[in-house]
Each structure stands twice: as structure tokens, then as C-alpha cells.
Amino acid sequence: MKRKLDENDVPSPEPAANNSTTQSSFESFGLDPRLVQAIAKSQFSTPTPVQARTIPLALEGKDILAKSKTGSGKTAAYVLPTLQAILRRKATAPKQKITSTLVLVPTRELADQVYRAYTSFAAFCSKEVQILNLTQRVSDAVLNAVLQDSPDIIVSTPARVSQYLNSARLSLDAISHLVIDEADIVLSYGYEDDINAIAKVIPRGVQTFLISATLTPEVDELKALFCREAEIVKIDDQEEKGEGVTQYVVRCGEDDKFLLIFVVFKLQLVKGKSLIFIDGVDRSYRLKLYLEQFGIKSCVLNAELPVNSRLHVVQEFNKGLYDILIAADDQEVLGGVLKRRSSKAVQDEEHQISDEDDEDNQKPSRKKKVANRDKDYGVSRGIDFQNVACVINFDLPHTSKSYTHRIGRTARAGKAGMALSFVIPKELYGKNRHTTISSSKHDERVLEKIIARQAKKGNEVKPYHFDMTQVDAFRYRMNDALRAVTKVAVHEARAREIKQELIKSEKLRKHFEDNPDDLRHLRHDGEHGGLIRHQAHLKHVPDYLMPAQGRKGLSADEVGFVGFKKVDGKDKRKDHKRRGKTARKGRGMGKPKGRIDPLKSFSAKKKH
């Protein structure tokens, strides 16, 4: 094809493609060399689609509404442009101290995560850029001192910002960049009044970033409140086709969930780290204690623990200290809910399958949106779980949208991932009363919506059929383990973790120093509280129970036959069956021959 000539008879350059995803590297954005160096240190090779399209627009100073799925790199899409703007301003006015960037997030955990992202990308310009996490657990005196020094970037929840604005300890007069992360749920966390208060003091002309995983009426409200002709960056699933999740669904009875979860982990059918979503904190601890019976370690993300403790659990999971993390969404583990929902709203959620699954038809009123907010946003949104190989929906979420956010925890940054969901068919609901939960009554209806939603995106939810004849041999072990995990054991496990956090609490350290008896009582309860009846034999899988294909994923030292005698011949075990027969015989026919009184025969002399 011939190219057009300009007025000097020189071929004019071909127009650049209108798709910014052609950017092949971060260097092409014209970022500060210190930022490029930090990007390389963070092992970011090439921009993700949302970064490739958002960063150039942001550097031009335009307002941006970016919609992309969880794990697509949205945080870096606004962190890098805001840091670039600060470094550019510092180059012209190095001594000027103003707070120019405000980042609003719905939860403390997400605030900590964003703060660490800023710290990471500002690693080579840390002297020029000061960042403050306003939600961190430090004294007000420390925060006030830092605020007086006008940090360049403030990361916070809307409530915390509103609190400091009301007390005149924070000024937003010089703000030039406003970021609202997780914009589609920030209002649903009860921050509407705080957002309105912030909007009144934000100066005109502020560059605004609205970052979201979905486009909802909440996002439209924020757009009308803060944006001026915002550029919409909407990343379709086709552009992220390399980040696919293989999805499976298993139809089974309630008891079979516990049987199959044991088989999956004990026979190592899943390799790598797993994130298990479950309905309720009590149920989370029950599953944890159940898996411990088989020697399978896991950790629970418990909403009752302090924020720092929950962050510590996530960090331990990300570091690989635990391969299994159990999360209860319905308790909103992330916290940040400032307005407690009414009991009627909670009851409605338990018995209603929301119609909010269809985004195109989602136009509920403001009050209805708050009352019917998805319970599962807690863990499935915001927190950065790293290198998750498999997401297991032990209990199916209440909506297909929640399912989408849950499985977004895996298959991130181009890596492969798998989602496995347990579904209770109608005919099996309520068959096992001691393990049945009310929410599973609607599993089939929710599954239909999930399949339809994924089909629109070109994804398939495949049925997975376990050969139950090969795993039924493990059923008696499952029953033994479940019987050992009593309600008392579950409650004591929850109480023990809270007591341990009390012992470690900085605020209580002075109290314990003055009242050592209180500390002694807490430790006594933690050490001597009988949590569960441990059954060592359940940790081993005998050869005769192994399925034909079950040994492939196991090493030789992980499975072994549980013998009745020790290898060294010094078996101290009693034959309870034989002893029982002897006792019964003795009761019917007098003292058995050869019976010896152990007290009379005991000798302290050393045998040679």
C-alpha cells in the first residue's frame, strides 16, 4: 500500500495504532529512570493491558475510569503516574512540601497493600517522596507529627480522612491527584457521608482515578461527583485471555465435601498454594481442625482478630509458610464496614439469590444496594494473595459475581490456575444434618447463573467426576475426624487465637506487666485447653486404602502402612481385644489363671 506524501514529497509516517496495548515496555512511557529501575527490581517485564492503556492517558493529565478484573495490575496503573507527577514537581520546586496525592480504599488491609506498592515503586527515590498510611496502628501523636510535615501521598479509608478533616489535622487544599480504588464497592462499605465530606473540600481541577473491577451504579455516582470527561479504560476478557482459569464443579453430598477435600490434599491432587472459601468462621475452624487430624496444616483468616494479625496471616501465606488458607467471606474479613447491617438485611441475604448477577440490569436503589451488598466481597476483593494455584469453593458463593471475584485470586500475571467448586444437588440437601448449611439449599440456582455468566465470557465450567468407589475406603477416616472436631473444640480454637493475640498486643503489655496473674491465666488457658482429640493414625494412609492412581503424587515417606508393632520390637501397645476377652472370661468364671497383681510384682531393681 502506498503511503501519502507530505508537502516536501516525503512519505508521511503511518498513524499510530489507537490501541495503547502496543506498548512493549515501561521505558516507552517516558517515566523517571528511578521508577524504571524500581519496576525492573519488582520483576515487572511488560505492562499489562490495563497499565498499557491507563498510564499514557494518566501522564497526559486526563481523568480516568479504569475497569479491569482482579489481579490485572490496576494498582501499578495509578501508582506510577502519580509518582511521576510528584517527581516532576520536585524537580522544579524541590523544597516545596505539600500533600498532592490522596488514595482512598475501602479497607485497612487494602490501604496497607497500596502503601507497600507505593513504597516498592519509590524505592530509588524514597528521600524525595514521603508516603503515609493513615490507617496504620500507631499513636495519634506520631500521625500528627507526620501530617505536619505534609507527606506527598496519603493512603487511607474515607472514614479516617473525614475524621482528620473534622479535627483540622489534615488539609486537602493542595491535592492534585485523587485515586479511589475498588470504586465499585467503596460506597457499599458505608462511606457515603465521608465521600461527600471529602468531595466538598477537594479543589477543582484535580486529576481523578476511579479504579474498579466492575462498572456499577456506585461507580457512576463517584464519576459524577469527582470526574470531568473521564477517559474510560475497559479491558475486555479477550485482552486478558492469557490469564485464564480452568473451572471445575463437583456435585456431591455435604459429607462428601469433607471426604473429597481430604483426598485432594492428602493425595496431592492439587499442587501449589490453595485458597479455600467457606461460609462462616465457625465452619472455617471446623475445616482447619478436621484437616489437622490428617496432618494437613492450614491457616484461617479470622475477622475477629485485629487487622495487623490478619495481615500477618496473609503475609505468612504469601511467603509459603502455609500452603492452604481458609477464608470466611460472610464475616467480611477485610473489615471496614462502619455501619452494621440490620438483622433483617442479613436474614434477607441468607435466603435470597440476588438479581445483581446481571450487570446490564443492575439498577437497584441506593438503600437496596447497601442492604443487599454482596457478603463475599471481603476476601475475594482487595487483598493480594500471591501465587495461588487453586481456588476451592468449599461452600458456593451467594452470587455469580462473587464467584467471579473469588476465582480472580488465581491465574494472575499470566500464570495458570484452577477453580474447584462443590455444589450440593437438591436431592442431597439436608441428608447429612450435622454438616449441612442453609446456604447450600440454593447451590443449583447459583450454579446456573455462574455457568451463564462464564459462558458470556467464553469460559467453560466443566463437571468433574470423582470415582467415589476409589475414595469410599477413606470414609471411615473422615467420620473419625469429624467426630473429633466438636463444637466445643471449634469454639476453643477461636478463643485460643484471640487469647494469643491479647498476649501479644502492644497496648496490653503494660497491663500484663502490672498484673502478671492475668497473663498467667491467659497462658494457662491457651496451653491446657483441650482443643481436640488427636488421632495419630489418621495422618498415615495404609497401602490397602490407596486408590490405584493415588500414589503418583506422593513421595515414599509421606504414606506408609500403620503397623500394630514397632520396628524395634519394643511395642508397648496393649491388645485391647484380647484384654477385653480376658476380662469378660474373668467375670464369668472367677479369677483367670496366672493373673498377677501389678502393685505386688513391681520391682525397682535394675534388670541386667
TrEMBL record:
One of its GO terms (cellular component) is cytosol. A motif (Q motif) lies at residues 24-52. It catalyses: ATP + H2O = ADP + phosphate + H(+). Its EC number is 3.6.4.13. Residues 55-233 form the Helicase ATP-binding domain. PANTHER family: ATP-DEPENDENT RNA HELICASE RHLE-RELATED, DEAD-BOX HELICASE 56. This is RNA helicase. It comes from Exophiala bonariae.
